[in-house]
């Protein structure tokens, strides 16, 4: 349990970025690959429960890492971007037409960008606090 907490506390943004990027690739490339017949037998990957798993995972991971970091540094940009990503992703899940691909892909990309923003802000903050403690 301590190891898992350490990973999420120190590498949560990396995990979130990787997961969100995989989600965006899944949402954008999978329909094309299925249409070309390159993934015959993998139709289950296009089902809505896979999207729900991606969405719930993104909400839990981003909710933990980004909100936790926001409470420390109080810079809202990552929180705003991840919220826009969640809204876009959720709009894509609700859609059952060609707009679904665009909304879910945009949502995954925005969530990945939010993790990058959060990582940069927390990295700067930890560097600044380390520098201040060395000077003091």
Describe the fold and architecture.
This protein is mostly helical. It has helices at 2-35, 48-73, 77-94, 99-135. The protein has one domain (2-131). The protein has four helices and no strands. The chain is elongated, with a radius of gyration of 17 Å.
Count of distinct structural domains: 1
Encode the helix/strand succession as letters.
HHHH
Indicate the proportion of strand residues: under 5%
Q: Mean pLDDT, nearest integer? A: 80
How many helices in DSSP terms?
A: 4
How large is the radius of gyration?
17 Å
Helix and strand composition category: mainly alpha
State the helical fraction.
Answer: over 70%
Would you report the number of β strands? Answer: 0
Topology at a glance:
Blueprint: H1 2-35, H2 48-73, H3 77-94, H4 99-135
Helix pairs in contact: 1-2, 1-4, 2-3, 2-4, 3-4
